[in-house]
Automatic annotation (TrEMBL):
Annotated transmembrane regions: none
Top-rank taxon: Bacteria
Major localisation: cytoplasm
Record keyword Secreted present: no
CDD domains per UniProt: AdoMet_MTases (cd02440)
Protein's recorded name: Protein-L-isoaspartate O-methyltransferase
Enzyme class at the top of the EC tree: transferase
Keyword Ion transport on entry: no
Record Pfam families: PCMT
């Protein structure tokens, strides 16, 4: 797994690599789910693989060290003392994140011995274990809103010889009264929680994915407190992000909506010599996520396909020769025009891939290009969403 992270994700020699090599993942995740039903089969069906069953070990090892997501909890169940068997219906409610994403974020966190670390969203305990290995467990606090996850993590981290402080509670509130050199949030949010910013020590760094209701174009917020106490932050466009936190609204393209987009002729077709925005223009797509609202991309389509589930509008782009495209649209929104107008604004702002993130003392937050010509506010958290975590 580590060799694959080096080859494909640029994992470098250093403390994160050493910690991953030293971490027996089967201790943290002695059970994991594997889906046995087809993706479109309803209800879905999973089998729970168990390390204590010798016949399960080869498949479980493949899951644990394959680098992909590891499914650890079904329908909010307790993790300790459960029997291996088939589950159907409901959904997977906790998983260990894809290792390429986790490793790159842990490297960016710049963990060092003796640091005080807050791990928000305990999950299977992987990031907490890495932090304990690098920084020492006395300075590590791991926090989750699901008591079943914290109970299991406390036991399994102890089996590894680590005894961090394990806290059950709302993630966005952090640990009131404490200060941390590093804060890592393992789920996406609509904005940076002010309580976590307040808990950054001088010289501290906070990482959290920030996204709208759409899962398509996320950003990574990097927040730092300088030695003299000032807060500086940026929002960087990224390709992949953590899953949305508990209670956060999400919009998707349903199977039926995707079928309609790909099969129907649309209400308007135009020939264009304007190229669709490139996938590599991540800074533009991050702006699309926040400024054009309600759009979701079908990344499984061969060419650019975007839908707006709330109003039924959609866009399909098909190449028809050298530097010519058919732009097929339907619905009340002209998504193509919206994209081209925003692309012009983005280019006029210098085609940024990252934006300054302003976190005001009164709680307001907004992102802006360096020249200030492209900006948007981040939404306030709704009262019912305060303190949610995965």
């Amino acid at each position: 797994m580590v060799a694959e992270l080096e080859a494909r994700h640029g994992l470098r020699p250093g403390p994160v690599r050493d910690a991953l090599l030293a971490l027996p993942r089967e201790v943290l995740m002695p059970q994991a789910y594997v889906r046995r039903s087809a993706p479109d089969k309803d209800p879905p069906r999973w089998d729970l693989l168990d390390w204590s069953a010798p016949e399960d070990r080869p498949e479980l090892l493949g899951l644990l060290y394959g680098g992909g997501s590891v499914l650890v909890q079904h329908d909010g169940e307790p993790l300790l003392g459960r029997a291996g068997r088939t589950r159907s219906g409901a959904s997977i409610t906790s998983m260990s994140t894809v290792m390429g994403l986790t490793a790159s974020l842990l490297e960016e966190l710049d963990l060092r011995s003796g640091q005080r670390v807050l791990d928000v969203g305990t999950g299977a305990g992987v990031t907490a274990a890495v932090a304990c290995q690098i920084c020492g467990d006395r300075g590590v606090v791991t926090l989750d809103r699901d008591r079943h996850l914290t109970d299991a993590a406390e036991v399994r981290l102890a089996d590894l010889g680590f005894r961090p402080q394990v806290v059950y509670g709302p993630g966005e509130q952090g640990v009131p009264g404490a200060e941390f050199d590093r804060i890592f949030v393992s789920y996406a949010m609509e904005r940076v929680p002010q309580a976590l910013v307040d808990q950054l020590a001088p010289g501290g760094r906070l990482l959290v994915h920030v996204t709208s209701a759409s899962p398509s174009w996320p950003g990574l917020a990097i927040v730092e407190r300088t030695a003299d106490g000032r807060i500086t932050a940026q929002l960087r466009a990224v390709e992949f992000a953590h899953r949305a936190g508990h209670g956060m609204e999400r919009i998707w393209l349903s199977k039926e909506f995707r079928r309609r987009i790909n099969a129907e002729p649309g209400t308007w077709t135009q020939r264009s010599m304007l190229a669709p925005p490139a996938d590599a223009d991540r800074g533009l797509w991050l702006a699309v996520d926040h400024l054009l609202g309600g759009l979701v991309r079908d990344f499984g389509a061969e060419h650019l396909v975007i839908g707006a589930p709330r109003c039924g509008s959609w866009l399909r782009v098909e190449p028809v020769g050298h530097r010519r495209w058919n732009i097929i649209t339907q619905g009340p929104r002209d998504i193509w025009k919206e994209l081209q107008d925003l692309k012009a604004r983005w280019q006029a702002a210098g085609s940024p891939s990252r934006y300054r993130l302003y976190i005001e003392p009164d709680g307001g937050q907004h992102a802006a290009s360096a020249c200030g010509r492209l900006s948007w506010p981040l939404p306030n958290l709704h009262p019912l969403d305060q303190g949610s975590a995965p």
